[in-house]
Design a protein that fits this description.
The complex is a heterodimer. By secondary structure, chain A is of the alpha+beta class. Helix content of chain A is 41%, strand content 16%. A four-stranded antiparallel β-sheet of chain B has the order 1-2-4-3, with helices on one face. In chain B, helix 3 packs across helix 5 and helix 6 packs antiparallel against helix 7. The longest helix of chain B is centred in the C-terminal third of the chain and has 20 residues. The chains are: A alpha+beta, B alpha+beta.
């Protein structure tokens, strides 16, 4: 088995991790044991995630960069008859499909939701706190990030923002269509011009 | 003090159970599969993954309701940096990680993830990929169960558009693109022609 090479370059995302306007992030960190600082380890991290499932995720949604993301705590590996694994530390997988550059993505987390980042990563070895300057968090992510071998995106040229805008435009269009499609030409033209003017930002 | 802490943990745990299936968020569903790679097969597995057609020709493009999917080969954990544990976990096998994000119609939620494994087997060349992993079954009928065995639950899942199916997104994007093209073509069109063209084109956007 060969360990992944470490990079001495500035933090960046491998080009293989991008398709169109979407990027794949795959990060695996090692979780501290229960008797460490801060105390709790993987068990506490799991509890934080469990609570996060029922409280709002609005702050993450507000970043408007993430299509889908997940955290997975791995404390045992599936048994297919391979040589048994002994995990000294539980693994934390973070996987994200996001828009923008690696720098923009990490900076958004550091600038807008640093305390949430602390809750999500505080039991990972090497997690830097405080997060500023953001280069420290970028280095942490970069040294634990894997390169994707095959990445599929169903709508590679769309971002979360363009999808939101498309749904808003669709709703406005349906209202316009219901109200104006049956109008005589002059009245239709006036309604059409008003619709286009109102939706200029989404067109 | 300890009693109060225990009560707090019990309350938080009970609260978290209200969240239901941890892999689900609205109509979105996260699939995470980890399968050990057979000894000596890592390089050939990577090559097979690199040779898969990409974009619209990717085998994953045919899998229903799939928004995002990826394969990653974990050939060792990254532990050679300052601050890493003194005795870090070392994996004895390499692992194939597969993740997918689905958004299904509400009525299809109970069929997940089972139906997804069958869809994967139907559309993806599983023998070229998982065929290089431990325990790959000879009987194709066992493949969905083989894949399911590697499933690991998400601990926390976020979906930006948790109720927007692929068909809904594609429809919204198609209407937007149709409208943009229409507006560009009709900057100075007279009302009679504008309405006639609109009636003709709008019918296509609605289909």
């Amino acid at each position: 088995m060969t360990a992944n090479q470490q990079t001495a370059q500035a933090p960046h995302s491998p080009p293989e991790n991008a398709v169109g306007r979407s990027r794949a992030m795959t990060v695996i960190s090692l979780l501290k044991p229960a008797l460490s600082w801060p105390p709790g380890g993987a068990r506490a991290q799991r509890l934080v995630f469990a609570v996060g499932r029922v409280v709002g995720q609005d702050r993450i949604r507000d970043l408007s960069m993430i299509h889908f993301a997940r955290f997975v705590i791995i404390d045992r590996l599936p048994d297919y008859g391979q040589e048994p694994e002994r995990l000294r530390q539980a693994l934390q997988l973070f996987e994200s499909n996001y828009n923008g550059t690696f720098d923009q993505y990490i900076d958004a987390f550091v600038d807008k939701i640093p305390s949430q980042m602390h809750r999500l990563w505080q039991w990972s070895y090497g997690f830097p706190w405080p997060l500023t300057p953001s280069s420290r968090f970028k280095e942490f992510i970069n040294r634990n990030e894997f390169t994707v071998e095959h990445y599929y995106v169903a709508y590679p040229e769309e971002t979360t923002k363009t999808i939101d805008a498309a749904f808003e435009l669709l709703a406005a269009f349906e209202r316009f269509h219901a109200a104006a499609a049956g109008l005589p030409p002059q009245a239709f033209a006036a309604a059409y011009r008003a619709f286009v003017a109102a939706q200029q930002e989404r067109l | 003090m300890i009693g109060a802490l225990r009560e707090l943990v019990a309350t938080l745990t009970a609260l978290s159970r209200r969240g239901g299936d941890p892999n689900r968020r609205g109509q979105a569903y996260a699939v995470t599969l980890l399968t050990p790679v057979a000894p000596g097969e890592t390089t050939r597995l990577k090559e097979a993954l690199k040779e898969l057609p990409t974009g619209e020709r990717s085998p994953l493009a045919g899998v229903p309701h799939l928004h995002f999917g990826r394969w990653v080969v974990l050939d060792g954990l990254k532990t050679g940096w300052q601050g890493a544990p003194r005795w870090p976990t070392k994996l004895r096998s390499d692992y194939l990680l597969f993740t997918a994000d689905l958004v299904v119609p509400r009525a299809a939620i109970p069929s997940l993830p089972g139906v997804f494994y069958a869809d994967l087997v139907e559309h993806v060349p599983v023998s070229e990929l998982w065929g290089r992993c431990f325990g790959y079954p000879e009987d194709p009928g066992e493949l969905p169960g083989y894949l399911a065995k590697g499933r690991i639950d998400a601990s926390l899942y976020f979906a930006g558009h948790e109720e927007a199916t692929l068909a809904q997104i594609r429809h919204a994007v198609a209407v937007r693109d149709g409208l943009v093209a229409f507006v560009r073509r009709h900057q100075t069109t007279e009302p009679e022609e504008l309405r006639a063209d609109y009636v003709r084109d709008a019918a296509a956007w609605s289909s």
